[in-house]
Specification:
Blueprint lengths: L13 E5 L10 H13 L3 E4 L14 H13 L3 E6 L15 H5 L5 E3 L4 H11 L3 E3 L8 H8 L6 E3 L6 E4 L2 E10 H6 L16 E7 L3 H13 L8 E8 L14 H8 L7 E3 L12 E3 L2 E5 L4 E4 L6
Parallel strand pairs: 1-2, 1-3, 3-4, 4-5, 8-9, 9-10, 10-11
Antiparallel strand pairs: 5-12, 6-14, 7-11, 8-13, 13-14
Helix pairs in contact: 7-8
């Protein structure tokens, strides 16, 4: 599968912002304005979509309205990249209303994480487009933004910001596919999930928040039964936060590491964990479709190609 890279950003370009999932809630406004200021201070212009300021339940409009806002951002030639203001819960309901032919002919970086996993997988599957799994407007990191979006050369070695861990020894290289684990797994069986062939030699990356250990086991087992895990060459695990305890107090639960290694005991691919991506952390960008290598013995992650041209 040939991945298509969008054009790099230049200082002075316009960045579109959409509320593709949660609306800009009152408690978000301070961080939202702070993120916008960082974008402005870097020298970029901002174009806010029609979903900014709208609220409907846990979204910023009906699924069709949100899709129309995203479609219009791709159609607008003056907008050179699109950022989600944050994640949420409703992105999967938007996918059926997106104009994938329009998007294919107007490729540009679509940026965000968590619920934005749905969009990254849909764009990768339908348009062969690189997906920019990285900080959104509410949690904006200017260094990674500039490194991955304004430079058409490999980012190279990225140093750990926290303590990374070796869970299974080895080294490998391959193209990245992944996102938030439960959202990624929920797309299995739909038209918005990559074919098994797209996972040949891939490095599967995932993070999780607010789930129980038994659900994490379910999601990984779902990927196993679907044939995904036998295709991949390695696994990178980000932050796993706010794990819900089992309802039954008598249950003795394993550690996350014990659980993951048990589910994956039939495979030999290397696993590195606690990387700097996920919720409540600075996100090292993990562009879908881009080739990386990693070595668990040195806890080293290298980006072997650029995500933009």
């Amino acid at each position: 599968m040939k991945v298509i890279k969008p054009s790099k950003l230049n200082i002075g370009d316009t960045v579109g912002i959409v509320a593709s999932s949660l609306p800009v809630l009152p408690s978000f406004k301070e961080n939202y304005e702070r993120g916008k200021k960082v974008i402005y201070d870097l020298g970029f212009k901002i174009h806010e979509g029609k979903t900014i300021g709208k609220t409907r339940w846990w979204a910023a409009g009906t699924p069709k309205e949100v899709a129309e806002d995203i479609n219009s951002m791709f159609a607008d030639r003056s907008v050179k990249a699109i950022m989600a203001q944050t994640g949420g819960y409703s992105a999967s309901s938007v996918l059926e209303y997106l104009d994938y032919e329009l998007i294919t002919h107007n490729l540009k970086p679509f940026i965000g994480m968590s619920d934005v996993t749905n969009f990254h997988m849909a764009f990768f599957t339908k348009c062969n487009m690189v997906g920019f799994h990285m900080d959104d407007v509410l949690h904006f990191n200017k260094e990674f933004f500039l490194k991955f979006l304004t430079q058409a050369e490999p980012a190279g070695k990225i140093d750990p910001l926290t303590e990374w861990e070796q869970w299974r020894q080895g080294k490998t290289e391959g193209h990245l596919i992944g996102g938030n684990l439960h959202l990624f797994a929920n797309l299995l069986g739909t038209d918005y999930f990559p074919t098994l062939k797209a996972f040949d030699g891939a490095i599967l990356y995932w993070e999780e928040v607010g789930e129980s250990l038994h659900n994490i086991a379910r999601f990984l087992t779902h990927l196993k039964y679907a044939g995904v895990l036998e295709k991949i060459s390695g696994m990178l695990i980000g932050k796993i936060t706010y794990i819900k305890p089992a309802r039954e107090k008598e249950v003795i639960e394993p550690t996350v590491k014990e659980l993951v290694l048990d589910v994956l005991k039939d495979y030999k691919f290397p696993i590195m964990s606690n990387l700097d991506f996920g919720h409540f952390t600075v996100n090292i960008p993990m562009p879908v479709g881009i080739k990386v290598s990693f070595d668990t013995s040195t806890l080293e992650l290298n980006f072997l190609e650029s995500a933009v041209v």
